[in-house]
Amino acid sequence: MQRFGNALPAIALVGCVALIALIVPLAEISGRGYGFFTRDPTQIGQIPYYSGYLSSLGVLTWATGAAVALFSAVLLDGLAADRSEATFLFYFGCLTALLALDDLFLIHENFFLNEKIVFLAYMLIALTGCVLFKKHLLRQATGFAIAAACAFALSLIIDRFQYAIQERIGDFRILFEDGSKFFGAVCWAIFLCKASAASILQSARS
């Protein structure tokens, strides 16, 4: 993982150039201008700047948690004698980054993937991590992780029974579904930040 950390600047720069270059074939294939891929969606759609603000903040929250966890993992891999903490943070940091990308591009609804299969895959990855790193989860800020899991479960349940719930409470269904997901993302980001800080402090003391 330390080699990954050393190579990260180069990976970031190459990835940046590749993403910019990707716009050219995408524009050619879709028949759209370059601005369609570079500008803000609110400008392209000519909708108010505050449209979907909770969703945008949710993506930022996911990204924050992922960045903190991955940075801490690389740092701990070079400092700590026990690298299991680094592996724990790297695993869940990668999962969180994947969830951020999904939330940003709605991967579970697009790319010809079955939504149920995508959610099942995420659940299996999360459960595998819970089994592999149970010791680390139990000694960190577990309350925030549990709160996040409960909030995500509530959001999925509301989505599963959305039509029945919509008939009873109307548009409040959307507020509760998306609000629960956002609350869960915040709790999860707090968990990752606290777990990262605790691991780094413990490593510094030892």
Automatic annotation (TrEMBL):
TM region(s), chain numbering: 7-27, 47-76, 88-107, 113-132, 144-162, 182-201
Record keywords: Membrane, Plasmid, Transmembrane, Transmembrane helix
Top-level division of the source organism's lineage: Bacteria
Protein name: Oxidase
Taxon lineage: Bacteria, Pseudomonadati, Pseudomonadota, Alphaproteobacteria, Rhodobacterales
